[in-house]
């Protein structure tokens, strides 16, 4: 019976009925077994009479925290799309919701479709994805009463958590009420400005009412209320397992133990066939897919065993999702940990085979191959999963996959499965992992990863890659001299390999480090040396070069301009534009066109500057960077007699509002309404 929690239910249902607006977040926290999910289900009944849509989303059921899984599921429901949809279907749904073309790249990227955003820097991609998602929720709340419920956010991926955090902080949008359930420990990490609802233990009189109700229903052998309170601390989840243990034939004196031990005792009372199914399901995660389970355990006994597990309250199809799920993470973890190691490996192998046939997701496949002991198969899939997580801005997930891939490479070498690529794979993975760790501020761990990689590396190219990664760590810690020394070593090694792409990247990093050290002249000399190497002495007028060549020329043009030679800077920038267009870098073309507009203005070429600026605006708009587009629109043309086009300012007002850029929005409004005595 559901007894107690009246005050908590009132607070929760009141929040769920709130209109869209500010201060929309509510954290529902509690320990395992406190009954957060049960309370939510009762709250749904209280708001069911209203014309309100409740969107419910949860973590990745595989347990791997796939990037944006919860937010993607939420937006798919908001857009009324299936779990997998085409780009055309997604575009039509976004526009039907009342969003515009500018919101499409951010949401499409979140759904895993390749977009123009991939050419942009990670912070820009993140901003576009976050704001497009929030705008979609705002539009949904405008169409009807909406409440968003996110269960178990402590198992969400970090990019999804970032969107939830922004949803609770943003003041520019009228977002629907947001309910998030999590553990007490994880909830403590969230800002105190977010409202909280703690679901604690039941009151003693509530526990007495539960015991009285159960005894009236015919349950015999329950421990005294005081003993039950001391054993369970009055947490509903623990009480339920005590009751079920007694119903299954257990003794009351055996219930005075910890909850994990009690769950283990309950598992030992189940039939062997039921335990086998539970073990196979635990390998697949908290919410195992039924079709995968049927593929792994083909036979007539599966349905019977599932029915037994459902009756035992361990695994079943529960409301509101209707999906097969364990009753709690604790039950799944205990089942998994109690499974013998050899049985676990064979079940993971069976899961890998089933996944290959039904849902070939590289992260899930790599996970199962890894835990099945198939190191050679796992390392490539885990690397690809890490690359995908990094592309989707999930540094935490990328780091976990890269680390597992490194371990798999070691295991493959130790087992004699190396096909000759282990050295290169280990170093490349180490560099990627170190870069992710550095981005997260874990520079000591990053240095340790690179130190081990040096022991694996004999190739000059691989060592040069390590040198570059080491320099990036040194720069992040303020050790500019150490970074310069590492980059000089890396340049020498890279030149010997003939890989001019790597050479250019190292020279760019070296020039940046020298400029931070205040040695501009040496930085400029290094760039000139790089240009001579890349073009075999032909110089910046060369019509061919490595892919990053435009970045070298753009950097040199900026430095020459700062030195006062605007004419030479203009020629270098024009060459940079040629090479950016040659390698089809739209971002490069836009960045260089922006620089060319500034240089032309300095040279008094107002018409040419305006053409370059308009080209940069068009390129940035098509790439999907709304802030950069707005910045260009707000740039005044200082040439005599120039006027700021009114339509541009109105466009800037719209763009700055869409991405929540408050400062830019105020600038745009000031430009649209200049003071009466302002000069035109």
Any overview of this molecule?
The chain has 680 residues and is mainly alpha-helical. The chain folds into 5 domains: 6-198, Rossmann fold (3-Layer(aba) Sandwich); 204-267, no CATH class; 270-360, Arc Repressor Mutant, subunit A; 361-450, no CATH class; 625-680, no CATH class. The protein is 64% helix and 5% strand. It contains 33 helices and 7 strands. The protein has helices spanning 6-16, 36-47, 69-78, 87-96, 104-110, 122-143, 158-169, 184-187, 204-216, 225-232, 236-247, 259-269, 272-284, 290-296, 301-311, 329-338, 341-358, 362-372, 375-391, 395-414, 422-439, 443-456, 460-476, 480-497, 500-516, 520-535, 549-562, 566-582, 586-602, 606-623, 626-633, 646-658, 662-672, and strands at 25-29, 52-57, 145-150, 178-182, 195-198, 315-317, 324-326. The strands form 2 sheets. It has a 5-stranded parallel sheet with strand order 2-3-4-1-5, with helices on both faces. Helix 21 runs antiparallel to helix 22. The longest helix has 22 residues, at 122-143. The protein is globular, with a radius of gyration of 30 Å.
Which features would summarize this protein structure in a list?
single chain; Arc Repressor Mutant, subunit A; mainly alpha; 64% helix; two-stranded antiparallel ribbon; 680 residues; Rossmann fold
Indicate how many domains the architecture comprises: 5
> How much helix, percentage-wise, in residues?
55-70%
CATH class of the largest domain: Alpha Beta
CATH architecture of the largest domain: 3-Layer(aba) Sandwich
- Overall pLDDT confidence: 92
Radius of gyration: 30 Å
Strand order of the largest sheet: 2-3-4-1-5
What sort of overall outline do the alpha carbons produce when their principal axes are compared? globular
β-strand number: 7
Share of β-strand residues: under 5%
Structural class: mainly alpha
Q: Gap between N and C termini, in Å?
A: 75 Å
Uncertain stretches of 5 or more adjacent residues: 639-643
Q: Determine the number of helices (DSSP H or I, runs of at least 4 residues).
A: 33
Largest sheet: 5 strands, parallel
Instruction: Provide the CATH topology of the largest domain.
Output: Rossmann fold
């Amino acid at each position: 019976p559901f007894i107690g929690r009246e005050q908590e239910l009132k607070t929760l249902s009141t929040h769920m009925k709130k209109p869209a607006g500010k201060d929309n977040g509510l954290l529902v926290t509690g320990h395992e077994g406190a009954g957060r999910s049960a309370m939510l289900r009762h709250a749904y009944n209280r708001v069911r009479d209203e014309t309100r849509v409740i969107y419910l989303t949860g973590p990745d059921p595989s347990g791997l925290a796939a990037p944006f899984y919860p937010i993607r599921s939420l937006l798919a429901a908001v857009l009324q799309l299936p779990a997998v949809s085409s780009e055309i279907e997604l575009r039509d749904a976004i526009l039907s919701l009342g969003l515009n073309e500018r919101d499409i790249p951010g949401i499409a990227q979140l759904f895993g479709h390749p977009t123009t955003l991939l050419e942009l820097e990670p912070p820009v991609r993140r901003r576009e994805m976050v704001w497009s998602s929030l705008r979609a929720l705002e539009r949904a709340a405008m169409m009807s009463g909406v409440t968003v419920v996110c269960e178990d956010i402590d198992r969400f991926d970090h990019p999804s958590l970032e969107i939830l955090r922004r949803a609770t902080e943003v003041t520019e949008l009228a977002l629907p009420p947001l309910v998030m359930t999590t553990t007490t420990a994880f909830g403590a990490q969230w800002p105190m400005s977010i409202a909280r609802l703690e679901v604690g233990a039941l009151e003693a009189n509530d526990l007495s009412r539960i015991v009285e109700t159960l005894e009236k229903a015919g349950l015999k052998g329950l421990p005294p209320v005081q003993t039950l309170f001391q054993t369970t601390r009055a947490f509903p989840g623990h009480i339920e397992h005590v009751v079920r243990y007694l119903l299954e034939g257990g003794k009351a004196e055996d219930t005075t133990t910890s909850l994990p031990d009690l769950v283990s005792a309950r598992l030992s009372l189940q039939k062997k066939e039921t335990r086998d199914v539970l073990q196979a399901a635990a390998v697949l995660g908290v919410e195992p897919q039924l079709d995968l389970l049927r593929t792994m355990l083909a036979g007539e006994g599966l349905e019977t065993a599932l029915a037994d597990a459902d009756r035992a309250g361990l695994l079943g199809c529960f409301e509101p999702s209707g999906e097969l799920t364990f009753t709690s993470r604790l039950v799944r973890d205990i089942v998994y940990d109690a499974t013998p190691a050899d049985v676990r490996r064979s079940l993971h192998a069976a899961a890998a085979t089933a996944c290959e046939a039904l849902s070939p997701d590289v992260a899930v496949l790599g996970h199962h191959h890894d835990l099945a002991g198939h190191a050679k198969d796992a390392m490539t899939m885990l690397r690809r999963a890490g690359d995908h997580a990094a592309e989707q801005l999930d540094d935490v997930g990328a780091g976990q996959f890269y680390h597992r891939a490194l371990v798999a490479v070691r295991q493959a070498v130790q087992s004699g499965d190396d096909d000759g690529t282990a050295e290169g794979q280990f170093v490349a993975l180490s560099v990627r992992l170190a870069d992710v760790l550095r981005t997260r501020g874990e520079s000591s761990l990053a240095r340790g990863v690179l130190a081990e990689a040096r022991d694996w590396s004999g190739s000059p190219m691989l060592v040069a890659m390590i040198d570059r990664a080491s320099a990036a760590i040194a720069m992040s810690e303020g050790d500019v001299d150490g970074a310069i020394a590492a980059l000089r070593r890396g340049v020498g090694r890279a030149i010997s390999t003939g890989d001019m792409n790597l050479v250019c990247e190292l020279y760019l990093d070296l020039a940046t480090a020298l400029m931070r050290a205040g040695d501009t002249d040496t930085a400029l000399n290094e760039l000139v040396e790089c240009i001579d190497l890349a073009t075999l002495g032909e110089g910046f007028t060369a019509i061919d070069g490595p892919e990053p060549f435009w970045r070298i020329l753009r950097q040199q043009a900026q430095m020459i301009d700062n030195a006062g030679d605007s004419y030479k800077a203009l020629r270098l920038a024009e060459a940079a534009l040629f090479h950016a267009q040659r390698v089809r870098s739209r971002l490069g073309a836009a960045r260089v066109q922006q620089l060319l507009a500034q240089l032309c203005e300095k040279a008094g070429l107002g018409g040419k500057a305006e053409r370059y600026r308009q080209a940069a605006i068009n390129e940035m708009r098509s790439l999907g960077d709304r802030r950069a587009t707005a910045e260009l629109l707000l740039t005044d043309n200082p040439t005599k007699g120039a006027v700021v086009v009114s339509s541009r300012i109105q466009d800037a007002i719209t763009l700055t509002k869409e991405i929540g850029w408050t400062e830019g929005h105020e600038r745009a409004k000031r430009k649209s309404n200049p003071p009466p005595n302002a000069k035109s």
